[in-house]
Design goal:
CATH topology of the largest domain: 2-enoyl-CoA Hydratase, Chain A, domain 1
Number of helices: 11
Strand order of the largest sheet: 1-2-4-6-8-10
Distance between the termini: 19 Å
CATH superfamily of the largest domain: 2-enoyl-CoA Hydratase, Chain A, domain 1
Structural class: alpha/beta
C-alpha cells in the first residue's frame, strides 16, 4: 500500500523510519496549492488510514515558505467563472483535505516557515502539532479577496486552538499573525530556528512513531469526536477507548518493561 503514494505528482514525498514527509514544492511562487495538489494531498491522507508502516507525518513547504494558499491564476481566476455546482464541488474538496488530515490516525506535525496563508493556513490548522520559525507569518486572508472567513473548517477549528476572540479578529481582518503571537496564543507548539525546523519536527515525529501508535490513533480519534460530546458522553467514550487499548500488546509490553525497569519498545499492536 505504501508504494501507491511513493511518487506523487504535485508535492514531494519521502518516507524513512516510520515517518512520512510531505513537502509542498513550488518554491518559486511560495508554494501555492492547485486543484491537482488539493486532490492529491486529500487522497494521500485518506490512504494513510490503511498504511501501518507510516507512524507519523510531517508536512512542510520548500524554499523558506509553507504555502501562499490557493493559486491566484490556477484557482482563483477559474473560480470566478464557475457555476454554483462546480463551486460547491471545489469547496467541498478543499474541506475534504482538512477532514482527511484530521481523520488519518497518524499524528501530523506542520513545520512552518515564512508565508502560511489561506488554504496553507488551513492545512496547518488541521495538523495535530505545529512548529514555526521566527519568520513564520500566518493569515486566513479569505476576506481580502471578498470571501468569508468560514473556509475549510476555520470557524470551527481555529477558535478551539487560539480562542474565539483571536480567531474572530484573524478571520474578519485577514491580517497576518506573527510567530510570536502564534506561540503565545497556542497556534505554535514551539518556535525554533529556521535551520533546525525540519529536524525538530522530525524529532517529534520520531518520538511519536516510537510510542504506542495504535493508542495514538485512539487519542486522535477522541480529540476529534469529543468536540461534539457532552462531558458524560466523553467520559464514557474514553472509558471504552481505554479498555480497547488495555487489550493491546503494547500495554502488556509497557507493564513488562516497567517491572523489569526497562524502557518499553512499542510495536503498535
Amino acid at each position: 500500500m505504501l508504494k501507491e503514494i511513493s511518487n506523487p505528482e504535485h508535492f514531494l514525498w519521502s518516507f524513512e523510519d516510520g515517518i512520512a514527509t510531505v513537502t509542498i514544492n513550488r518554491p518559486e511562487r511560495k508554494n501555492p496549492i492547485t486543484f491537482e495538489s488539493y486532490a492529491e494531498m486529500r487522497d494521500t491522507f485518506r490512504k494513510l488510514v490503511y498504511i501501518d508502516e507510516v507512524k507519523a507525518v510531517v508536512i512542510t513547504g520548500a524554499g523558506g515558505n509553507f504555502s501562499s494558499g490557493g493559486d491566484v491564476h490556477d484557482i482563483i481566476g477559474p473560480l470566478t467563472r464557475m457555476d454554483m455546482k462546480d463551486l460547491l464541488k471545489f469547496t467541498r474538496m478543499t474541506g475534504d483535505l482538512v477532514k482527511a488530515i484530521r481523520n488519518c490516525p497518524q499524528p501530523v506535525i506542520a513545520a512552518v516557515d515564512g508565508i502560511c496563508a489561506g488554504a496553507g493556513a488551513c492545512v496547518t490548522m488541521a495538523a495535530d502539532i505545529r512548529y514555526g520559525t521566527p519568520d513564520a507569518k500566518t493569515a486566513f486572508l479569505f476576506t481580502r479577496v471578498g470571501l468569508a472567513g468560514c473556509d475549510m473548517g476555520a470557524c470551527a477549528i481555529l477558535p478551539r486552538i487560539i480562542g474565539q476572540g483571536r480567531a474572530s479578529e484573524l478571520l474578519f481582518t485577514g491580517r497576518f499573525m506573527t510567530a510570536e503571537e502564534g506561540e503565545r496564543w497556542g497556534w505554535f507548539n514551539r518556535i525554533v530556528e529556521k535551520d533546525n525546523l525540519l529536524d525538530e519536527a522530525k524529532a517529534m515525529a520520531a518520538t511519536l512513531a516510537a510510542g504506542p501508535t495504535f493508542a495514538h490513533g485512539i487519542t486522535k480519534t477522541a480529540l476529534n469526536h469529543e468536540w461534539n460530546m457532552s462531558i458524560d458522553q466523553a467520559i464514557e467514550a474514553e472509558a471504552q477507548a481505554q479498555a480497547i487499548c488495555m487489550q493491546t500488546e503494547d500495554f502488556r509490553r509497557a507493564y513488562r518493561a516497567f517491572v523489569a525497569k526497562e524502557k518499553p519498545v512499542f510495536e503498535g499492536n
